[in-house]
Amino acid sequence: MTATAKVLVTGKTHITAGANGAARSSDGFLDIKLPQPHPAAEQLFGAAWSACYLGAIQLAAAQRKVTLPAEPAVDAEIDLNQAGSSFFLRARLNVSLPGVDRDTAQALVDAAHGICPYSKAVHGNIEVTTTLL
């Protein structure tokens, strides 16, 4: 991080494990049960990433003066995989931008990966397939 970076928001959570596992945010907005084993980590990661990615699409559209549909959408699928003793993730992001011509929509989808901090964080670290529906 550079010295000129400005923190925009900090998410604070407390997680407990086990049969009565739970995740709670410091502001109380997030409060869910996480009994183990459960795919909650992958679901939460998918939700967080797709929310960020959708915001990046909106920013890319605004920069290009492209009007998005009223309800653009991103569906995320996050796989937890195991090969031998190693665990790793794979992701699929399915993007719906109805009413936007395909070439423009694809340009927005591509640009969003360069804007979204989650996409930047996983770039080169996990296999990501992005599909424009």
Order of helices and strands: EEEHEEHHE
What would you give as the CATH superfamily of the largest domain?
A: K homology (KH) domain
Oligomer: single chain
Q: Spans of 5+ residues with little confidence (pLDDT < 50)?
A: none
Question: How many distinct folded domains?
Answer: 2
User: At CATH's second level, what is the architecture of the largest domain?
Assistant: 2-Layer Sandwich
Percent helix among the residues? 25-40%
What is the radius of gyration? 17 Å
Total beta strands: 6
Q: Which class best fits the helix and strand makeup?
A: alpha+beta
* Head-to-tail CA distance between termini: 35 Å
Strand proportion, as a percent range, falls in 25-35%
Main sheet, how many strands, which sense, barrel?
A: 3 strands, antiparallel
Shape field: globular
Biggest sheet strand order reads: 1-2-3
Tell me the number of helical segments per DSSP (H or I, 4 or more residues long): 3
Query: What is the CATH topology assignment of the largest domain?
Result: GMP Synthetase, Chain A, domain 3
For the record, the CATH class of the largest domain is: Alpha Beta
- Average predicted confidence as pLDDT: 94
